[in-house]
Amino acid sequence: MDVQGYPQSIILEGKNITTLDQFVIRFAEILSHCSDYVIVSGYVSIIFGRSRGTEDIDILIPWMEKETFALLFSRLEKEGYYFLNPEDRSGLYEMLVGRMGIRAARKETIIPNIEIKFAKDDYDRYALDHRTAVEFSGNRLFISPLELQIAYKLHLGSDKDIEDAVYLWDIFKENLDAPLLRKFMQSLRVRGDDVGIIV
């Protein structure tokens, strides 16, 4: 798989589209009719070929009106999705407003699922405002800027998160905005020297 174009956008040549990719692509297509979105966390490294399992894909969206959420809810239901949370449409919206995530999956399945949250802090809002397009095989998805993604993964600190950060660094280190990555690392009070992320 050949990766080109960052930071303007990312073009993936020769990407093998997996069942997980197809799941995310379809969900994002439906979501994009109602809202902007940005994909964060583990799937960002998976889309670039990292071989690791994930049960959920994390997506941030800006705050939306209840009526807009009702439209999204209806579109998802019509397309064969359901919400795993034991709430009705109104209850799901209240969960979002209360800064909780809600999870959607294809009917008669649980995994994989999408966790949707309203952007809640400056990092989330930055990810939405500066999202990066990833294009492959006629598809387009929007992911968090990699500088923020790498720093935040180091901040989360689990073995899997650190491995995600190192994986993205290894692929994109020649194209990253080093001062921006350094800024996020300082803000999140993390260092990468011990795992080879040196900026």
Description:
By secondary structure, this protein is an alpha+beta fold. The chain is built from 8 helices and 9 strands. Helix 6 packs parallel to helix 8 (178-187). The two termini are 26 Å apart.
Short account of what is shown:
Helices cover 42% and strands 20% of the residues. It has 199 residues and is of the alpha+beta class.
Q: Mean of residue pLDDT?
A: 94
Compute the CA-based radius of gyration.
17 Å
Q: Indicate the CATH topology of the largest domain.
A: Beta Polymerase, domain 2
**Approximate strand percentage:** 15-25%
List the helices and strands and how they pair.
Elements: E1 2-4, E2 10-13, H1 19-32, E3 38-40, H2 43-46, E4 56-61, H3 66-78, E5 81-83, H4 89-97, E6 102-106, E7 113-118, H5 122-129, E8 132-136, E9 139-143, H6 146-156, H7 159-172, H8 178-187
Parallel strand pairs: 2-8, 4-7
Antiparallel strand pairs: 1-2, 3-4, 5-6, 6-7, 8-9
Helix pairs in contact: 6-7, 6-8
